[in-house]
Amino acid sequence: MLDPARGYDLIGDVHGCAQTLEHLLDTLGYRFQAGVWRHPERMALFLGDIIDRGPRIREALHIVRDMVEAGQAFCIMGNHEFNALGWITPAPAETGQQFVREHTPRHSRLLGETLAQFEQHPGDWHDFTQWFYQLPLFIDAERFRLVHACWDTSLIEPLRSVHGDGRIDQRFVQDSAVPGSFAAAVFDRLLRGTDMRLPHGMTLTGGDGLTRGSFRTKFWEDDPQTYGDVVFQPDALPEPVAKRPLSDTEKNALLRYGSDEPLLFVGHYWRSGIPAAIRPNLACLDYSAVLYGKLVAYRLDQETQIDPAKFVWVDVKRPESAA
Predict the structure, then answer these.
(1) What is the CATH number of domain 7-192+261-315?
(2) For the chain, how long is the longest CA-to-CA vector?
(3) pTM metric for this prediction
(4) In angstroms, how far is CA 156 from the centroid of its own chain?
(5) Domain locations in the chain?
(6) Residues 76, 148 contacting (CB under 8 angstroms)
């Protein structure tokens, strides 16, 4: 799919911040020509989550899709695009659900801004949800890899055998509604990442207002000893939980992306501060743009280790105006 000799600009979660995306593209040297943002030498690679939360979701989708269709970009699927597909897809009868992603108040809240902005544009919404099926769940360019949340070879290799280019179909989305299914595991791991249950039935309410009984975990730590060593989310664990030792069973269940594996770029995790690599072969490019953080890109050329000088970002200093 990708020319190994070309330079790529990898871009983190947009979440409807279309004006900020245009500012970032301009900063990277792209120009708006014949209705599409173009670069004379480089190509943009989007890490998913173009929709939800932000004020210009429809416009952001048009920017990204137009770039993809003009050969100026690729885009992989994020969990929010998958959520949208699940919202409109009937669930298999054996699940007892009406839709793959049930229309609960919690799910309605997460997709609500997108649905509201498309309310007067049903044809556009239909076209974009069909386009989501063109977004692969991962890209493996051999010397570098892209996935929205977590690279898990034990799931990606069997996925390749049925969907070689990483693009799934409606049946796969429907299968994901069945607990314990391969499709459910693929979406949960690749698009949401790894997690661990909080001890003793504890729950935590995060900065996003949602209450959870688990926390997101790192998938690359070589020798973690405590819960605090593996937590990877904006919301900190309470100190007693962070100091809790990991059991051998918990350690063995952790996924580990090796330091000798190809460069890996993810989004998803709402980071903050100055954009930087997590380790020499791993970077997260989601820096909470829609929460007035940063929309971040990494300018990838032929390097085999992530170069701290090649992160480029736009600070989001004020709310965007709605379209």
Answers:
(1) 3.60.21.10
(2) 58
(3) 0.94
(4) 16
(5) 7-192+261-315
(6) yes
